[in-house]
């Protein structure tokens, strides 16, 4: 009986870890952590509710600076040709220095999909992109 209870606890723990790690952004969350590692965002898809503040914790595990810019295509078009070296004035545009963590809170008013991209030279082409899916409340 003792082994049976241990097996149940182990299976439950594995299922919980699999759900958290493999959520894939399917269920709306109001707190999300995005890890930057090897010039990629993990996870690359997050689902959040429309109309509620969402706190993003951006953790850069790389030895170089990155940026996290989220928004519609026009925002990204501006940043692809822009010259802003540092972002700290808008909650949707954050510079994350090497080996550091930044926290920002964003409210998405309308359902839809918004990309988050690092626009430092070559990073977007390398695959440093992700998607915020904003679900209807």
Description:
The protein is α+β, with helices and mostly antiparallel strands and 137 residues long. It has a single domain (25-135), classed as Immunoglobulin-like (Sandwich). It is built from three helices and nine strands. The protein has helices at residues 2-22, 73-81, 123-126, and strands at residues 31-37, 40-42, 45-49, 53-60, 66-71, 93-96, 100-107, 112-117, 129-135. Strand 1 and strand 2 form a beta hairpin. The longest helix has 21 residues, at 2-22.
Number of helices: 3
CATH C-level class is Mainly Beta
Q: Under the CATH scheme, which architecture would be assigned? A: Sandwich
**Overall 3D shape:** globular
Main sheet? 5 strands, mixed
Total beta-strand segments:
9
Q: What name goes with the CATH superfamily?
A: Cupredoxins -  blue copper proteins
Nearest-integer average pLDDT: 85
Number of domains: 1
Percent in helix: 10-25%
Structural class: alpha+beta
Order of helices and strands: HEEEEEHEEEHE
First-residue to last-residue Cα separation: 45 Å
Which segments are poorly predicted (pLDDT under 50) over 5 or more consecutive residues?
5-23
Query: What does the radius of gyration come to?
Result: 17 Å
- Read across the widest sheet, the strand sequence of neighbours is 3-9-8-5-6
Measured by DSSP, the beta-strand proportion falls in 35-45%
CATH topological fold name: Immunoglobulin-like
